[in-house]
Specification:
- By secondary structure, the protein is of the alpha/beta class.
- It has 9 helices and 7 strands; from the N terminus they run βαβαβαβααβαβαβαα.
- The longest helix has 20 residues.
C-alpha cells in the first residue's frame, strides 16, 4: 500500500499516443510510477522512453483492454511491482465512422467492447484493492460526443453515453468509500483519431499537451465531470441536450457534411476525439 501523501502509482491505458501518452508523461514529470498499456509495442516503448526521460518510473504492459486475461495479468504485474494503484486513467478507446445506411452490428459490438467493456474490465480488477486501502481514483476518458448522437458516429457516441452513465452510477455507489470516480469528456484533441477527420470539421481543436494538462488538472481537483474546451464543452453538455429534436436533426444533418473520415479502423488506444 502506498504511504505517501500524494499518489505515486498510476495506470494509463491506451498510452501509445495522443492523450494517453500525454497524461503518462505529465505524471512521470512528478516522479510517479506509471504503468502504460496499449496494443502497439513499438509506440508503447516510445511512451515509456519519454516517461523515463521525464523522471518517472514506467512499467511497460503491451496488450489489449478487450482481453480480460491480459487485463488480469497486467494488474498482477502492477501489484507485484508496486503493491497496487492510486490512480487508474482508463483512456483506451476506438472510433470508426459509420453512416447508418451501412449499419454494422459488428462495428457497434467492437466499439463497445473497447470503449465500455475495456473500462469495466479494469474497474473490476483494480476496485477491490482500492476499496481495501480506502483510497484511489478511477478516471474514465469519455467524450463530448456522449451528450448527443453525432452524425456518422452512432457507435462512438452511444459507447461514450453508456460510459458516462456507467461511471455516474459507480460514482454514486462508491460515495464515502474513499474511492473517487472522475468522468472526462474532451472535445477535439489532436491525435491519430482527429488526424483522420477532414480539416475544418473540428471546432476548438486542442493540442495534445493542452488536453492532457486539462485531464490531469481535473483529476487533481477531483471534479466529478471534467469537460473541455469550454467554448465547445459548455454548449455540448448544458445546451445541446435541451435542444428540441427537430432543431437538433436540422443542425446535425448539416454537421454530417463536415464530419467525414478517411477509411480504416483505429487500434485501441490510438487517440481520443
Amino acid at each position: 500500500m502506498n504511504t505517501q501523501s500524494t499518489p505515486s502509482r498510476v495506470l494509463v491505458t491506451g498510452a501509445t499516443s495522443g492523450l494517453g501518452r500525454g497524461v503518462a508523461i505529465l505524471l512521470a514529470r512528478r516522479g510517479w510510477r506509471v504503468a502504460v498499456t496499449g496494443r502497439r509495442r513499438d509506440a508503447l516503448e516510445e511512451t515509456a522512453r519519454q516517461a523515463r526521460a521525464a523522471g518517472g518510473e514506467p512499467l511497460l504492459l503491451p496488450g489489449s483492454v478487450a482481453d480480460m486475461d491480459e487485463v488480469r495479468g497486467h494488474y498482477a504485474l502492477i501489484k507485484a511491482a508496486w503493491g497496487g494503484l492510486d490512480w487508474a486513467v482508463l483512456n483506451a478507446g476506438v472510433s470508426e465512422s459509420m453512416h447508418s445506411k451501412d449499419f454494422s452490428a459488428e462495428l457497434v459490438r467492437w466499439t463497445f467492447d473497447v470503449n465500455v467493456l475495456g473500462v469495466c474490465r479494469w474497474i473490476e480488477v483494480v476496485l477491490p484493492d482500492m476499496l481495501a486501502q480506502g483510497s484511489g481514483v478511477i478516471a474514465g476518458i469519455s467524450s463530448l460526443a456522449a451528450f448527443r448522437g453525432l452524425p456518422r458516429s452512432g457507435p462512438y457516441s452511444a459507447s461514450k453515453a453508456a460510459l458516462n452513465t456507467l461511471l455516474e452510477s459507480v460514482r454514486v455507489d462508491l460515495r464515502g468509500t474513499g474511492v473517487e470516480i472522475v468522468t472526462v469528456c474532451p472535445g477535439f484533441v489532436r491525435s491519430e483519431m482527429t488526424d483522420r477527420n477532414e480539416p475544418g470539421s473540428m471546432p476548438f481543436l486542442m493540442e495534445t499537451a493542452a488536453g492532457a494538462a486539462a485531464i490531469v488538472a481535473g483529476i487533481d481537483a477531483r471534479r466529478r465531470v471534467v469537460h473541455f474546451p469550454w467554448p465547445l464543452s459548455y454548449p455540448m453538455k448544458y445546451l445541446a441536450p435541451a435542444v428540441p429534436d427537430f432543431l437538433y436533426d436540422l443542425a446535425a444533418s448539416r454537421l454530417a457534411h463536415m464530419r467525414r473520415k478517411k477509411p480504416g479502423r483505429m487500434a485501441p488506444g490510438a487517440g481520443k476525439c
